[in-house]
Amino acid sequence: MKSIKLIILLLFSLQAGTYLYGQGGVISAANFMKLYKTDKNICIIDAGKTKDYTAFHIKKSISIPYNTFNKAGDIPALIKTPAAMAKIFGDKGVSNNCTIVLYDGGSQKYSSRVYWILKYLGAKNVYILHKNMAAWRKAKIPITSAPFHKKSTQFKVNLQPQLHATKQAVEQAIKNHSAIIIDARKAEEHAGTTKYSIGHIPNAININYTDFLTPTGAFKSKEAILQILKNHGINGSKPIILYCQTSIRAAVEFVALTAILKWNHVSVYDGAYVEWYYNDLPLNKRK
Q1: What confidence tens digit (pLDDT) does each residue in 143-158 have?
Q2: What is d(CA 165, CA 39) in angstroms, rounded to the nearest whole number?
Q3: What is the domain extent for residue 231?
Q4: Which residues have a Cβ under 8 Å from the Cβ of 14 and sit 6 or more positions away?
Q5: In a domain, 5, yes or no
Q6: C-alpha torsion sign, points 253, 258, 264, 267
Q7: 106 DSSP 8-state letter
Q8: pTM for this model (two decimals)
Q9: Is residue 181 part of a domain?
Q10: Which residue, 92, 112, 144, sits at the end of a domain?
Q11: Tell me: the pLDDT tens digits for 72-93?
């Protein structure tokens, strides 16, 4: 009898591993529901805008909009201190030991931004659920408009500073060619032909974050993402620094490279274009 129980437990653990780790930190609606029903330590975060959460959200999800983590100052969208961000999560009932599932309005920008923040703070079990109403209905994900609150807890920081690139790190990468810099903005922003951009950080390669997403906003397959990078001569052999205007879109590429491809040595330059421009640092225009 004991041997039969052990076999059953083993099969269950193998099944759990399949749906949790099949594609890194990106989880399907069907597999999310398996977690929803079995994991008592799950914390579901709606990282989108408050108005969207108010309209409807996944039952038992809490609202923590992505911009909650922005600090005040001349440079917009820079993140707060690790201690301040940890307190936000703790006050909302999210600990570093939770199985955390993030989603947003469907763009992947906001859930990815919070994903990067959580990984920077040292959370391990973090997943992204694509907002696809057809898939949600098929998986019978429960939806409600009633707000949900969790009892406050403590989020303990295990900081991963290598995931957060500073302005100085970018300057060194330019000087020493020690890292590949990727601009996740639109081509016209990279070229410096828009109202909000006069160019790009020197040596930066332009890969629009939407290139890693399907027309519905879901992440593309591992093979498709690898091919896009290969087309730009990127194979993961060198460290990569990602940025955009305020490094919200760059976080989508962080998820693609670290959660799906499992690449190491990938960081996000949080200051991004706006900090670079604010400090009057050199910008290149597309030739």
Answers
A1: 999 999 999 999 999 9
A2: 34
A3: 161-278
A4: none
A5: no
A6: positive
A7: S
A8: 0.91
A9: yes
A10: 144
A11: 999 999 999 999 999 999 999 9
